[in-house]
Specification:
mainly alpha
């Protein structure tokens, strides 16, 4: 009769998560996990069906932590809080952010894009239904707004995660998101007037994109 392992699957997942969180996904191997547990590699393979299962569990744990950052009440404005939380996660949990969004590690999960889409996009769209400043917009317009804000927020998160720009305080991050959000909302509201203005029409023609003036919007369906 085989000896029962003193470690559970959760113990192994926690150890793997700790390694990824502190050192990066590339450092997480069966040998590294065994060292973290002060054990041999045998419990890893006896408690889990495969390393792929372990990887999936670590990804889920990282995504759950991201969600906790995004749902933390900071300003009382749900949209602003989610943007701040996303960027603070990128700043604070550098290795986890890179695993989720900046490396090939997520590729093995098969549906990380779907998970992120299901939570962030669909959950936000649902919450936007009660957001008074956007009541005049259709669901498609709201999705375009979210996608534009996602491009800005993710870009800022990546810059901070990699220390490409100077560090920003939470207040500075909030002000940047708010300022950009105001312009995005106003741009969506006034796009018909903007795209038919002589200055914009001339700019589009010179740039080789006159068709944008006819569409009066760029398709921002990113997910």
């Amino acid at each position: 009769m085989p000896v029962k392992s003193k470690f559970t699957a959760e113990d192994i997942i926690d150890a793997a998560f700790l390694i990824v969180r502190s050192e990066g996904a590339e450092k997480c191997s069966a040998r590294a996990i065994a060292h973290e547990l002060n054990s041999s590699t045998m419990p890893i393979y006896s408690c889990l069906s495969s390393m792929k299962e372990l990887k999936e569990a670590v990804l889920k744990k990282a995504l759950d932590l991201l969600i906790s950052y995004e749902t933390k009440v900071r300003t009382g404005d749900v949209l602003l809080d989610m943007g701040i939380g996303y960027i603070m996660f990128a700043k604070t949990e550098k290795h986890l952010f890179r695993m989720l969004f900046l490396s090939g590690s997520r590729g093995g999960s098969g549906d990380m894009r779907k998970r992120f889409n299901d939570y962030v996009v669909n959950a936000l769209l649902q919450k936007l239904s009660g957001f008074e400043p956007l009541n005049e917009f259709s669901q498609e317009q709201k999705r375009n707004l979210l996608n534009r804000m996602w491009v800005f927020t993710h870009g800022l998160a990546v810059l901070l995660n990699n220390s490409i720009i100077k560090d920003l305080s939470e207040r500075q991050i909030a002000e940047m998101i708010m300022d950009t959000g105001i312009f995005v909302i106003l741009g969506e509201r006034m796009k018909r007037e903007i795209y038919v203005s002589p200055e914009v029409k001339t700019f589009l023609e010179r740039s080789g994109y006159p068709h944008l003036g006819q569409r009066q919007a760029v398709d921002f369906d990113l997910f």
